[in-house]
Design goal:
This protein is α+β, with helices and mostly antiparallel strands. The chain has one domain. Helices cover 46% and strands 13% of the residues. The protein has 3 helices and 2 strands; from the N terminus they run ααββα. A two-stranded antiparallel ribbon has the order 1-2. The longest helix is centred in the first third of the chain and has 16 residues. The chain is globular. The termini are far apart.
Amino acid sequence: MYNRLYTREWQRKHRSEVKAEHDVALLARLGKKIKPTECEICKWSKTRLSGHHQDYSKPLEVIWVCGSCHKKIHQGLTQ
């Protein structure tokens, strides 16, 4: 229950981020934004990739990274 409430509150406060994530996911599903087969940082290809936004004012500009690299980006360990 707490997670659901936290998620809704976060989404309400970060509408532009949610929209950017949704737009990129939709374009990838439709084949209009090509998702690479390997992480753009570590080049690992045996994992699921997610799009990381460097700047939410440019919602369609993402780098495709593995979970490990995505975590490092948010910890400030890589760019």
